[in-house]
Amino acid sequence: MNPQTSCGGWPFGWKLWMTAAVTTLLLSGLSLFAQDKPAAPASDSEEAKRSREELQFSLEQVATMRLQHTGTGAEIEQVAHPVMRFGAPLFGNHHGTVWVWGKRGRPVAVLEMCQQKDDGLWYQACHSTADAPLKLTMSDGKTWTPKSSNLKFQPLPGAPLPADTPVARVRQMKAFLQKFSAHQLWTWEYGDGSRHELRMLPTQVHRYEDRDQQLIDGALFLIAQGTNPEATLFLEAVQPADDAKPFWQFGVGQSTLAENVVFYEDKEVYHGRPAKNEEWSLSTSSYWRTTSKTKDKDSQP
After folding, report:
1. How far apart are CA 138 and CA 252, in angstroms?
2. Which of 82, 110, 65, 56 is nearest to 223 (CA)?
3. What does pTM read for this prediction?
């Protein structure tokens, strides 16, 4: 039996015992606003009901998380709603969500959250996109303290100058996106070595800018297996102080256990090695995975 991946490449199936060893994630903090609660339609299917319940639970969990800059202690704002909802029924989970922190400029952290069907566990995968050390605090006192990011930027080969307007720059980004391609190899410790094609989801999930940091325009896209995110793709128009003209750059963030390979115009531009078990479970790693237990409905007040 081959292991499968879910929520950014987590091995499930017969290797599920590995995730049980990861400490339970309990979260506390911000209250969930009433308007964030998904509304129930007049008539409902079981799948729609489950989707709404899982979204509600993810809202409650993420609303309690607190992210800070380690050096200054300054709190980093969370984008209030998930930037994307996804499903991966072939891998056993349903209705996952993607969240980002950092309302101004490039997000500093990305979180994927999903539930493995019927096992009572929620799976979270975080990766840092900031060079500065961060601290994510949970209610049980556990923290994620990445020292740096696995996101490295490089100029986009052969790209024209950034257009003058936001609308025109979006058209440029969509044209760039069509030139990317990717696949992944299941070469982590419990992988079977198989190859799986990935796709660039065509719509940005988050848009940002920060003129004070010479960031003219930026957008976050997702590289996915189906709609299940396996990597993040940042496209940015920048003009550093020592450059006479603005230019386009890109960066790929690894958000899976698998070995990801990304191409631009059929030339390899990124190769993310498979994650090692002793690394992704460490709270200091730039890519970190953990689990939390869902509440027993019968025990809820």
Report:
1. 27
2. 110
3. 0.82
